[in-house]
Amino acid sequence: xxxxxxxxxxxxxxxxxxxxSLVSEVIIAGGGPxxxxxxxxxxxxxxxxxxxxxxxxxxxxxxxxGMMFPRIVLEKETKYILDKFRIKFIVEEDLFxxxxxxxxxxxxxxxxxxxxxxxxxxxxxDVVIRKESLAGVVVNWTAVTQGGFHIDPxxxxxxxxxxxxxxxxxxxxxxxxxxxxxKTPSGKxxxxxxxxxxxxxxxxxxxxKEIFPGLYVAGxxxxxxxxxxxMGPIFGGMFFSGEKSAELxxxxxxxxxx
Length: 258
Ligand code: 48H
Fold this sequence. Notes:
Blueprint: H1 2-19, E1 23-29, H2 33-43, E2 49-53, E3 71-75, H3 79-84, E4 90-92, E5 95-99, H4 100-113, E6 117-120, E7 122-130, E8 133-141, H5 142-147, E9 154-163, H6 170-179, H7 197-206, E10 209-212, E11 215-217, H8 220-226, H9 236-257
Parallel strand pairs: 1-2, 1-9, 2-6, 9-11
Antiparallel strand pairs: 3-5, 4-5, 7-8, 8-9, 10-11
Helix pairs in contact: 2-4, 2-9, 7-9
The structure holds ligand 48H.
Ligand 48H binds near residues 62, 124, 230 and 238.
């Protein structure tokens, strides 16, 4: 029966992908701009990257543009990243204006083309800690976590985890609860500040760093962890934050190899 073949090939193909992703070098939690950009920069260095996204759609806050007007703004220094993903832009008063839908689609396609394994509809709900270092994440179907069902999750392991979960900094918050103290001035998650574009855009790059052995943070999650302001619908900082976290992770993986 054709129905049997369809079912078989869907399960067989998806399961093979999933089994092949149980162990990786980098797990990225969150497929917004910072997570997708970081994933691409890592994967083009032939690093095995698994990106887990809670929702079905990739792109995070890009889709909403500014108050649902489907445009976002970037600083002109981001041109090389826009070119890398072939995202079109128009220039107005030294700012690049880009289409939200095109950006979400092209960042996602760019990550896939560079070899990132993306799994959607999966929520990272806990972490694995070994010898005082992050060793992986604990995941379940979002349908299960949101449905409130009592179904045990499973674990995926990696050398490094990147928290790119945006405003709630979900993975960093979980780690903070488990270990008591992070590499932040207060040892805690400070929570994001109110809107102030210029310092927020600088901070989101500065804050992209390792905050616990094996745990890196990028994007809005980084500003939430360090108590820096938010910036509204300007996304250059997100791109640069993703790129910086990728560079630090590449360095860390190199050190581990030596
Ligand atoms: C798996 C998860 C989990 C989880 C969340 O919100 P994002 O777009 O994050 P960034 O930091 O890449 O970009 C921030 C930007 O979109 C933004 O919100 C800006 C610029 N705001 C400024 C302002 O002033 O408001 O993406 C995070 C992604 C989302 O797709 C979530 O669904 C996903 O992470 N996610 N995925 N497991 N536990 N939690």
